[in-house]
Amino acid sequence: MESYWNRKTFCLVTGASRGIGRCIAQEFAKKVGPGSVFLLLARSLSGLESCREEILRHRNSDIFVSVAGVDLAQPNGAEYQVLIKSAMEQGGRTMAEFDHVMIVQNAASLGIMSGLQVAEMDDLKEIQTYYAFNLDSFIILNSSFLKVFPESSTQCRSVVHISSDGALEPFKTWGLYCAAKAARDMLLKSLALESGVHALNWAPGCVNTDIYEEAVKYTADPDLARFFEESRKAGKVLSCEQTVTKLMKVLASKQFIKGEHVGYHEIPDVSNLWN
Ligand SMILES: NC(=O)c1ccc[n+]([C@@H]2O[C@H](COP(=O)([O-])OP(=O)(O)OC[C@H]3O[C@@H](n4cnc5c(N)ncnc54)[C@H](OP(=O)(O)O)[C@@H]3O)[C@@H](O)[C@H]2O)c1
């Protein structure tokens, strides 16, 4: 079986300015082959620049890292295709050179600030704004990426979605978030069924990032808010490195490529998932 890592890879990561996305960019960059190209997207250019610097500290410039400050709440397929093509051009590579192309759809927001239950949701603009970022841009970015890299007999294509337990299980006052994650999961399952794309929905567990902080502060349901606070106090919240290391092992195993939803806690802490 051909190795998942160590190949000349084009890798796009959304939300790479901080948190899990930043860690994904940094850790994946250590595992890909020379000549690889990374494209990192988020709104904060300074966050992306510092992620790039960190990547290049480990790679002696044998990979190219392009960054672009993009607000994914304003989906634009034409712009996404230009960004992908120009990252390749700036890196001096052509599409056909890559053995593996992958997109990591990591960026998302909670949409829990209003603290609403589903029966109270009546602000159309707020709903549309939430889904423009958390669903529409997910769809448009995927299709833009797959248009730039159409099916080929020599190139593996992967789509990784950083999902959530909320895709499978409802959380009170988190209706918009859970629905977006469930829809994103299903889109990847459909994609995997329709094409030869390797697709994985990865639920990272509770991870110590800004989103987790928001969950603790702003979750309106008191039981859920208490759960987040107590998990943190009990030391049950993971580091980004913990979840990303396990994600990489799951990807290397290539056991989960048909759009499966796989959670951090379902995978044992073993080393034999590497190939
Ligand atoms: N942390 C957890 O416990 C946990 C649990 C389950 C699932 N997840 C999922 O893991 C993923 C990463 O979350 P995280 O915990 O790493 O959160 P985070 O630290 O808040 O990072 C979110 C990332 O998304 C980017 N982003 C936010 N709004 C954006 C926009 N409009 N356009 C472009 N980029 C935008 C942010 O960058 P800018 O602000 O620079 O744009 C940032 O890089 C999310 O999909 C989240 O749902 C996290």
Automatic annotation (TrEMBL):
Where is the protein found, in the record's own terms? Cytoplasm
| Top-level lineage group | Eukaryota
Gene3D superfamilies registered for this protein in UniProt: NAD(P)-binding Rossmann-like Domain (3.40.50.720)
Q: Which SUPFAM superfamilies match?
A: NAD(P)-binding Rossmann-fold domains
Q: What GO cellular component term, any one, is given?
A: cytoplasm
Q: Which UniProt keywords apply?
A: Cytoplasm, NADP, Oxidoreductase
GO biological process, alphabetically ordered: tetrahydrobiopterin biosynthetic process
Pfam families referenced in this protein's UniProt entry, alphabetically: adh_short
**Major subcellular location class:** cytoplasm
Which Enzyme Commission number(s) are on file for it? 1.1.1.153
* Entry's Gene Ontology molecular function annotations: sepiapterin reductase (NADP+) activity
> Into which EC class is this enzyme placed?
oxidoreductase
Q: Which family does it belong to?
A: Belongs to the sepiapterin reductase family.
Q: Which PANTHER family match?
A: SEPIAPTERIN REDUCTASE
Q: What is this protein called?
A: Sepiapterin reductase
